[in-house]
Amino acid sequence: MTPSIPSTAPDRVRVLVVEDDEAVRVTTSLVLRAHGFEVDAVEGGLQALERIASHGAPDVAVVDVAMPGLDGIRLTRRLREEHDLPIVLLTARDLPTDVVAGLDAGADDYVTKPFDGEVLAARLRAVVRRRPAAASSPAGLVGLPGPPAAPARAVRTVRLGRIELDPEALVVTLDGVPVALSATELRLLEYLAGNVGRVVSRGQILEAVWGDSSWTDARVVDTNVGRLRAKLDPAAIETVRGFGYKLVVP
Fold first, then answer.
1. Within 10 A of 70 (CB to CB), how many other CB atoms are there?
2. Res 171 pLDDT > 70
3. Burial (Cβ within 10 Å: 0-12, 13-18, ≥19) of residue 2
């Protein structure tokens, strides 16, 4: 985790590091600053909530899982309830239960300690790139960053059985009722909708939604597909065992 020459870095992206181990907290902060991030660091979940309340939400949060008091999983749930910001978990154990619990809580990705500074910086850049340029729509949905505003044009709504997706307004409805999706969930739905009826592999989904299939764990895909099924029509996304997933329209 020795700071190195930064690669192309975000334009002063604000990172909140939440880590109870002082050595890891300091070293992580140094590494991220060396990569061009603006870093604020606190030692626990409650301190993170207080810092956000007083200074506003950061662009991305790096949260340790195993912390006394308000641990990383519960902090992630709290942050996800109140804010739309990318969250990357730090875990000392690469156990499926820990990973799935963190992803189910709303985390966007995770890294396992000890981690390489280049890897952490790359993952933060990736989740920040996926953050929507427009924070939310009137329906409380978030979506993809898009090009500069263009002249008004007809809205093209994608109908997928009981589901309707309006990519212009970033609105998704189920039987006419708006459904709140995270930015990652919306990107996943848009990708599946663009390949309706076709089987897409986890690697293809990782590349399209997360931007790099080489380092993101495939369990991220499974968890986010599970979230979509729970929020939308469970029958709309089929699991093709041994291959991946397929969006179907009844």
1. 17
2. yes
3. exposed
